[in-house]
Each structure stands twice: as structure tokens, then as C-alpha cells.
Structure prediction request, 403 residues.
Amino acid sequence: MLVLCDFPKSLYEKFVAFFQYISLPCHCFGFSNSLNVVPWDHVSLTTVLRGQNLTGQRTQKGRKTFLWEALPVIEARVERLLGRKSYKEVVRYLRAVKCSDTNGLRELRDKIPFYLCKAGDFLDAAHSLLFPVSSLACCTACRITHYHFEIYLKIFRTGSVPAGNDILDCPPLKDGVLLKQALKLLYSSALLYRNPKCWSSLIMVLGSSSLLENNGHLQPLSLKEPPLDFQEAVLAVSGGLLEELKARVSVSFCPAIFSSPLHHEACLILAVQAVQQMLLSDLPYLTSFLEIALAFGNNFWALRLLLNHLCCDEHILHGTVTLLVRDLSLQKAPMLKLWQNLGPQYVGEFLCLFLTCRHKKMQSIGLCALNIITENLQGLRNLPLGSTAHQEVSKFMNIFEQQ
Prediction:
């Protein structure tokens, strides 16, 4: 109440004084000062909220003092400031205040990146995910889930959050900056790095528009396949960029590539290379690959680029195919529903991509998918799959009918 309610100063002081005059047993003596809550107009607090004191430390009569408060008081101040939409003040306060309940304070500080997003400072939000507020705790990225990872990517990509959550009108991060920060997050946490949902979220966000719908979804884009020489130029620099990001050194993306008219495509190609490297090192930890493949949407050229790279390593190829076959076998009903929603054109392109792959093991994915469809859908020959896809699917339909 002392924090949340606007008591007159005289009444505020009377509350505190009255409580201090109460005669308490010896074993309750520690409670006598429990209402010594710093008032809102105290210089230690006001200088922090205004950004004049970033650490909460002051020197008073030759002695160092700190802004130190109990967790319930901190929670009440955060509630009050959020009610005023004072997001920058919340961030300054949480970064400066100290508390004996370190775990409780850490949970509050883990929301600092989101409050920075609400304030429209997306770049600082991305940085604050990677750097701890104090030397006693690890970074927030170590504790966020794949769900939070996707939410942050959507906010950084669009500069907005779903309806009902206000945010200042600020431009989103550029594609190159978004990708750079997303990869840094993945490289900073093994749990995120080995989670296929995080990689599928990254691919999905990079292949979507910058407009966030009210339901929180992004509108997928169909990016035209860039020229081969452009793809080769991106691949030529991607290895070095990814190694620098893993080493957490300052990285500069080549503006001729990542600020060109094909910057969407360049970022997607770099993400493909990052996925390939992840598979080379952490395939045994991966629980699924199908959702990564589906995240490419209609950008089949980018998925084909990834599959061609995987075919160069027999061990990785075998492991990836095993994952895909298992995924399709376990998710027959969801896949059929998804394919029906995406339409026959997508299904035809999906089947054609795998059935025409240069490696026979990868072709087995297309056969597995085709088998699921022929078992559950009638009249596949009559579906408008597209000319190229229709020819390939028809060819393999004949094989099935002969068996």
C-alpha cells in the first residue's frame, strides 16, 4: 500500500512512525523496520528512474549507499510503473535495485528485454537478452524457452506485438540485424540451439512479411529464387560470419549482400547454412526435422539448397532422413490436415522436391509422404498440383499401382 497508494506525505510518515512505536517481542525485533520503504520522491529512487544514476549507488557522508529493497516492494514498484506505461523507468529501476531474494529479482529482471520492446528499443532488448544485469547471474537467453524465442523474433521482425499489448511506434530491426541477434541467442544457449522449434521459428520469421496480424501470426512470403551467383556469394561469406558469431566477436554483414534488394533471400540462405552447421554438430540431440522443413513454406528453393548440402555428408543424410520418416509416420493425421489447408499446389511442390532429389535416400521421404496421401485421400491424380509436380507425382503413382 505504501508503494501503490498515493498517501499524503504526512499520513505516510504517521503509518511508519506508528508501526515503529509498537512494542514487539525480542524475537520479532527485526520487523520494527519493515515499513521503512523508500518513498517515491526519495533522491535514491528518483535519480534512478530519471536515468541520472544507473547503478543505484550513492555516496552519502563518505559512505556508499545502495538502492536496496525487499522483493514485495520491488514487485509493487514494477506494477505501479507498468500501470503508468513507464517502461524505460521499469528497466532502469530493475537494473539498479538490489534485493536479498536474488532468485525473485532475477525473475523480474528476465522481463527487462520485453519491457524494452514495449518502449520500442528493440536493439537494446536484443542485447539485454545476451548480457547479464549483474555478475552473479547468467544471461536471460539461458532461461528463455522456444516460445519466448519466437515471440521476441516476431517483435524484432515487425516492431509490434499482438493486439491488446501496447507498444510504441518504432521501426523494427533490419533483417541482417535480426538474424545476427537471433543466431547469437541460439549460440548462447544449448537448449535453444538443439531445439528444432527455435530453428523453425527463425526460418519462418525470415520468410514472412513484417506485418503482425492480430492473432499473432505472420503472413508468409514467397521469395523468388535468387541467381546462382548471388547464392554462391552468400555461401562464400557465411562460414566466416557464423564462426565469428559463435565466438561472440563484433560482426559486420557485407552491405553489398545483406543490404541489397535481395536482403530477404540473403538472410534466408545464411540461416540455411546455420541449420546445416547445427545438424553437423548436434544432429544426435535433434528430436525432429519435419517442422524445420515445413517452416520454409513456399520457399522450396531454400529448402532444396539445405537438402543438397545435407546430401554431401552420408552420416548426416542418413540421420536426417531417419528423423523425417519417423516424423511423417508419427504425424500422419496432422500432416494430412496441414496439407489440406495449404492446398494441392503446395503438396505437389513438396512431393516434387523430395521425389526429384538427386539422392535416393532423400527420395524415400517423398515416397513416404506420397504413401500417406494415397492411403487417406482419393482422386490424387485429379488434384491441381501444377504441371511439373503433376508429372512427377503421376510417375510415382504408377509405381505404387504396379506394386
Remarks:
- The chain has 21 helices and four strands.
- The CA atoms of residues 325 and 365 lie 6 Å apart.
